[in-house]
Structure formats: structure tokens, C-alpha cells
Amino acid sequence: MIRVYHSGYEKIREPDVHRGRKNADLGQGFYTTDKREFACRWAREKTGSDIYVNTYELELEGLNIKKFERNEEWFRYVFSNRRSMPDYLSEYDVIIGPIANDTIYDTLGIMTSGYLSDDEAMKLLCVGPCYHQITLKTLKAAEHLRFVSSEILSGDDIEANKKIMEVDEEQYLSEFTRVMEELN
User: Fold this and answer.
1) Among 18, 95, 21, 87, which residue's Cα sits nearest to residue 58?
2) Which of 9, 92, 117, 154 could pair covalently with 49 via S-S, beta carbons 3.0-4.6 A apart?
3) What are the tens digits of pLDDT across the range 103-149?
4) Is the pTM of this model over 0.70?
5) How many domains are contained in the chain?
6) 118: domain range?
């Protein structure tokens, strides 16, 4: 059993695995992380809405799980999902893998324009820290998830997370620039 976290604008006791975007990194599903601090940083402010961090326990026993590392197989799966292709790993209940670090630049979009090769795009997606997402893909996976608690982030927490994200983005841009210069 592992503890996982999901941030958003509401308390979610019973997640809907069919609600998420189909073109997200690991396809449609309910996205969580095993790092609470990352879930807190991932949340974005929305006028008139609180930011909730929901905590769950996920029983992995009995689930079909696919785990990715930052490699070509992961890159191909993310690329396929971002292009809204059919999910060729639909037999898995849970997919665990790194977040594709292209929140500032649409690396995969640049790749499809012909500006970047697959290898170059993969190098750019691997820039920065490696945060993992744990995506519940099936109803069976959702049944293995137990709601523990929910908390609303305070204004001080939100401000502290913004500062951490600013530093992360500065480091990301610096590293991204370095890798782009190496590619040219």
C-alpha cells in the first residue's frame, strides 16, 4: 500500500478515472503522486476557488501495473497520448511514470513541426527534476483507492509554493537553454 496525493479545486472522495484529459502524459485517468509537496506545488490558483490536497491510500496488490522510467518507451507512450492516439496500454490498471517536463515549451508540438528529432525532443523532455505521476486508469484501480483526508492549502502555503515553482522554472529554463545550445 502506498500513500498518494491529488490536488485540485474540490474534495474528491471517489475519483472518476474517466474524467481526466485523454491527451495527458499517461492518457486518461486519475492522476496522483506519492510526493505531497509536489501535489501542493502542482496546484494552480483559480479565482474564487480553494486548493485542496486530497490524500489516499492505494492498495497495489491485485492491480496490473506498468512502470516507466525516462526512456524511449516512456517517450513513445507520452507522445502517443499527447496526440490523442488510442491507448495501447489499456490492459493496465495503474501506470506510473515521469512527468514530461515541457510545461513552458510544447516540446512535442515543436517536434511534430519538424524542428526537433525524436532524440532531441526526448532530451528536452528529460530536462529538470524527475517527478513521478501515478495514474489510475481503470475502475478496478479506483476501487483499490481509499480516501484518507482532504485539506485546503493556506494562503501562506500557496505563496511558498509559488516561490518554489519560480525557482524550479528558472532552473528549468537555464537547463533547457543549455540543452538547446548543445543540440544546435
Assistant:
1) 95
2) 9
3) 544 655 665 566 777 778 777 777 777 789 999 999 999 999 999 99
4) yes
5) 1
6) 2-183
State phi, psi for 32 to the nearest 5 degrees. -135, 175
Separation between Cα atoms, residue 130 and residue 74, nearest integer Å: 13
- Spatial distance between the Cα atoms of 175 and 127, rounded to a whole number of angstroms: 7
Triad 99, 139, 12: Cα angle to 5° = 70
Distant-in-sequence, close-in-space partners of 76: CB < 8 Å, separation ≥ 6: none
Order of strands across the sheet with 132-136?
30-32, 132-136, 94-98, 65-67
Beta strands in the chain (DSSP E): 2-8, 30-32, 52-58, 65-67, 94-98, 132-136, 145-152
- Could you give the CA distance from residue 161 to residue 180 in angstroms, rounded to a whole number? 28
